[in-house]
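RECORD TYPE: protein structure
NAME: DUF4485 domain-containing protein
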Amino acid sequence: MVHQLDRAAIQLLDNEFYKQVYIFGRTIENLKSYEEDLAFDWLNKLIIVTDNVEEVRLRNDFMHYLVKSCINGQLDPPFDEKPPSKGSFLSMSKLLVGTSCLCELYFGSK
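PREDICTED:
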């Protein structure tokens, strides 16, 4: 069962996520076509719904850095490879090491 405060936090985080999705849609054209395919693979991975606040925060971190790559016109790691087919966002957090990710604020250094 999702706690009421968690539900409110997730709603706010979802709103932020969809703002980033909008920016993604406006900036994906900056990438080369093969990178666009990878970026959409990542978007499809990130759009998966979860009711865990920590995972939603981490999902937003991934989306932030994916959008940043699109704005810069080149996919940076980990987005330059296909996303893992299995695993939670928490298990994927190590992929953001070296990106000065916000996940360190939530989970500490990995």
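COMMENT: The chain has a mean pLDDT of 86.
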